[in-house]
Fold each of these.
Amino acid sequence: EKVLGSPVLVGARVTVGSYDQSLHAGDAKTGKPAWTYETEGYVHATPAFDGAALVFGGCDGQLHLVAPDGKPVRKIALGTYIAGSAAVDAGRAYVGHYGNKFVCVDLAGGKVLWEYPTGNSPVFSSPALASDRVVFGARDRKVHCVDRKTGKPLWTRATRGRVDSS
């Protein structure tokens, strides 16, 4: 199957998403498959690791949390395709989606804490975190910076085209 995203090393295992609607893990030295976690849509994004679980979105509209041994921890419904990688810190995930929003999710509670709308533009880029802000690009031809706690806009910067990359 076609591999999407970048591999992530967690312990002695490397994980990667795929067009076969799965997250795969294999031994980092030998490449021998260790486990496969199936979703209901393509897995475009690179998983993030918060120290306890791999966190990634899929085209099934779910934010998935999977233990390093491949066991499911939780699914959080976001309702639309998630193509970009999430950034995780302090029990929260920050991720954009095809529903024209960028969101902050409480991983333990499984709830969206805030949403930042991007007009009629999906978010495919992966965010960058600073201590008090989040920066990400969108297909509205802008780079956005929002407050990490509230999602309130701090600034935007126009670009010459859609921003799909990290």
Note: The two ends are 24 Å apart (CA to CA).
Amino acid sequence: MDVIYKLFWVITYFIKIMIVSRFAPSPTGLLHLGHAYSALLAFRLAKKRNGIFRLRIENIDITRCKKVYEDSIYEDLHWLGVKWKKDIVRQSDRIPLYQYYLKILEEKDLVYGCKCSRSDINNALSALSIPINSFDSKIYPGTCKEKKLSIWNNNVRVDIEKIKKYLGNIILSFNENGLGPNGETGVQHFDINWLQKKYGDFIVARKDIRTSYNLAVTVDDHSQNISLVSRGNDLFYVTPIHVLLQKLFNFQIPNFFHHRLIIDKKGKKLSKTKKSVSLNQLRMEGISLDEIKSMLDI
């Protein structure tokens, strides 16, 4: 009995200190140095704590994601020495799961259907004398809120006012283990009024793919038992959206580690759309893994 008791506490201690991190690229192009840094950092964070590193392929953008890019991701990660659990998650295989959680929000009456196009929104904002290029132009004016449109053949937006009533006057928070764009670290607090002012009734599911980045990553991080979300600090201010959804679904809120971005000689963030030099090209040019790590200072 004494051995079993000691084993229980050893297991409990291990579970408490072990982390589960992940790398979640989109196969919309070839990986570059920025992806290498993100993958190597997430892998190192897990390995340092004898934890688990998972790989997720975020391929819900059906028009841009391609199999050739997905295959290249696996090749690049192998070259970087990054090893992951065999159960790779592919978001395109999980649409029914996202719809399940969308249904939960519908049953709580916290979402509504929206058929507005970008031009519809711009026209509505113009009618309110709000310049299209202003900060407020990001906030949806609520055109479809009272139309009772179906969420199953339209875009789906959260109803922030109803969410405020549902959750009450609470302060949400998350723990930042890295650094935000302005040096934010430690416990970060925010209220729903701040989120409403910044994002309004944001889209939680698109008509064409029946989910969104925000909904999919929230569900996936939960189902993959991710305890430490490591990603670029350009996503720091999106984190409150994920924390809000985690709260609505009664998910455990993971720790976050936002890291610096890898920039080019002009001080710009590396990007697939800007045709930043790919890892594949660097490899073909004979650049070694040690040289890659030296470039990244990791």
Note: The first strand starts at residue 20 and ends at 23.
